[in-house]
Specification:
With 173 residues, the chain is mainly beta. It is 9% helix and 37% strand. It is built from 1 helix and 11 strands. It has one helix at residues 2-17, and strands spanning 56-59, 70-77, 84-93, 96-97, 100-102, 108-111, 114-117, 121-122, 127-134, 143-152, 162-170. The strands form 2 sheets. Strands 3, 4, 6, 7, 8, 10 and 11 form a 7-stranded antiparallel sheet that branches.
Length: 173
C-alpha cells in the first residue's frame, strides 16, 4: 500500500512540475488566436488573460500591405511582471493563414504565416523579437494578425503566468 501511495505522490509531483511543458515543442500553431479552442491561456492560467493588451505592439506593420512586399516587424512586449516571456504570431485572411514569416534568430521557428519563440527570453520590463513578414501576392481583406505573449514567472508551472492577446486588422482599400 505504501508503494502505491508513493507512486501516486511521485506521479502527481511530476505532472505538476511538468505542466508548463505540456507542449515541449511549443504552443500549438494557432494558439495566438484567443478564440481558438487550444489557445495560449489554455495552458498558462495563473491569471485571467489580458485581451487587447496594450503591452503588446507590432512595430513596422503597414496599414495596407503591398502585394508580395517584405516587412520588418518588431514585436514588443512591455509587462513589468515578466520574468521570462515567449510569443506566437499568426496572420489570417478569410479563415486561412496568409503571407509568410521568417526570422534568422535561433530561438524562433516559423511555418508559413505563423511564427513563435522556442525559448523563453528574460524580461526586464520589456522584451522584443524581430521577424519579417512577406505579404501574399494577392492581398485579401481583411488580414488579421493575432499576437499572444506569455508573461511567465519562471517557476516551471502554468501557475502565476499571464497571457496577453492583441490583434491587428489590416484592411485593403
Amino acid at each position: 500500500m505504501r508503494f502505491i501511495i508513493a507512486l501516486v505522490v511521485i506521479a502527481v509531483t511530476a505532472l505538476s512540475l511538468n505542466a508548463a511543458s505540456a507542449f515541449p515543442d511549443g504552443a500549438p500553431w494557432g494558439a495566438a488566436n484567443p478564440a481558438a479552442d487550444q489557445n495560449c491561456a489554455s495552458c498558462h492560467f495563473g491569471a485571467d488573460p489580458v485581451l487587447d493588451s496594450e503591452t503588446l505592439v507590432i512595430d513596422g506593420l503597414p496599414q495596407q500591405p503591398a502585394p508580395g512586399a517584405m516587412y520588418e516587424l518588431k514585436i514588443i512586449f512591455a509587462d513589468p511582471d515578466t520574468v521570462i516571456a515567449g510569443f506566437q504570431l499568426i496572420a489570417q485572411a478569410v479563415d486561412q493563414q496568409t503571407g509568410t514569416f521568417v526570422s534568422s534568430a535561433d530561438d524562433i521557428e516559423f511555418i508559413g504565416a505563423a511564427i513563435r519563440s522556442t525559448a523563453p527570453v528574460r524580461g526586464d520590463e520589456r522584451v522584443s523579437w524581430s521577424v519579417e513578414w512577406r505579404a501574399p501576392e494577392v492581398v485579401a481583406s481583411p488580414i488579421v494578425f493575432y499576437l499572444a505573449a506569455c508573461a511567465a514567472n519562471d517557476d516551471g508551472s502554468p501557475f502565476g503566468d499571464t497571457i496577453h492577446f492583441r490583434s491587428y486588422k489590416l484592411v485593403k482599400e
